[in-house]
Design a protein that fits this description.
- This is Lon N-terminal domain-containing protein.
- The protein is α+β, with helices and mostly antiparallel strands.
- It folds into two domains: about 110 residues, Archaeosine Trna-guanine Transglycosylase, Chain: A, domain 4 (Roll); about 120 residues, no CATH class.
- Strands 5-7-8-9-10 form a five-stranded mixed beta barrel.
């Protein structure tokens, strides 16, 4: 996926351009309101609806202070997924330099989700959701800016925002699945989804136009990366277990996806990022892959008929 960072409402993504208070709300069980018009960021309201186990998780988990890069809600990134960014604004190039030379090629990709808050002022409010720790895999300098290839490593929760200018930074902790399952249960589902993904990959390659070489599909790329048990130069607590990584690998667009199919994928990705049960996500992903296998098989049948006519 190629993304050029140019947003229709720059004040949402650049605190320095805000002329009025804009609230940013942290996601999930701890809700924190932040004001972009003040620095440093400060919490003005908190809803600590956490059970004891969750509190222990927040207290004991390792934290990192990293640059944060916001995206619209329709651009969530999941672990194992790749994305190519075209960075050209000075603030994003400064973030890139910080990540490359001071943060071990790491930053956090997250989305801003518009939310409804009973606020008579009518000011815009957003939730900072679906954080994903990413590693920079490749940088290609351009005449204007740079093309940056990134890879999702694991989910990350933004604890607090530390800096607003020239780009956002904050403290983040890993967000991993917390429902226990036997190794036998997980291994069985992992084998099932790997086989399904390989079948899908074979069909997708056949669907490609003849002039396109037998390219590796996005799902195959994610699966291959997950199987390497990647260990970027960061705290290992941010790297999900293998079964959890593989559970995200299916959430990639297949060749020739329509707009409606991409919208369905987006909903699947949002649900997958919310789930905290590896087995549940594996089962969801297996069902999604089977649907895609049927879909691609149908497209192949139509392609075959067209070639005979």
């Amino acid at each position: 996926m190629n993304v050029s960072l140019s947003f229709p409402h720059p004040s949402i993504f650049n605190p320095s351009l805000c002329t009025s208070k804009t609230q940013l709300v942290q996601s999930n069980s701890t809700t924190i309101l932040f004001s972009f018009s003040s620095f440093p960021f400060h919490s003005v309201h908190r809803i600590p609806q956490l059970d004891k186990k969750r509190r222990r998780f927040l207290t004991c988990a390792s934290s990192l202070q990293l640059p944060l890069l916001p995206f619209p809600i329709d651009q969530v990134l999941v672990p194992s997924e790749t994305k190519t960014l075209h960075l050209y604004e000075a603030r994003y190039l400064a973030l890139l330099e910080e990540s490359l030379f001071k943060k071990k090629k790491l930053f956090v990709h997250f989305v801003l989700d518009p939310i409804a808050i009973n606020d008579t002022s009518g000011e815009a409010s957003f939730a900072a959701r679906y954080g994903c720790l990413v590693a920079i895999e490749k940088v290609e300098k351009l005449e204007i800016g740079a093309l940056v290839s990134i890879r999702g490593i694991g989910r990350a929760k933004i604890l607090k925002f530390e800096q607003a200018e020239p780009y956002l930074t904050g403290a983040v902790i890993p967000l991993l699945d917390n429902t226990a399952h036997s190794e036998t249960e997980l291994s069985s589902k992992v084998l099932e989804i790997k086989e399904a993904l390989r079948n899908l990959n074979s069909l997708e390659i056949k669907l490609k136009a003849p002039q396109e070489a037998l390219l590796q599909t996005l799902t195959a790329n994610s699966l291959k990366w997950s199987e390497k048990t990647p260990v970027p130069d960061c705290d290992n607590s941010f790297i999900p277990p293998f079964a959890e990584l593989v559970s995200f690998a299916a959430l990639q667009p297949v060749s020739g996806s329509s707009e409606s199919e991409l919208q369905k994928l987006q909903k699947k990705k949002l649900r997958a990022m919310d789930i905290r049960d590896t087995l549940e996500r594996l089962e969801d992903s297996i069902g999604y892959v089977q649907e895609n296998i049927s879909l691609v098989a149908a497209k192949l049948a139509i392609q075959s008929l067209d070639s005979r006519s």
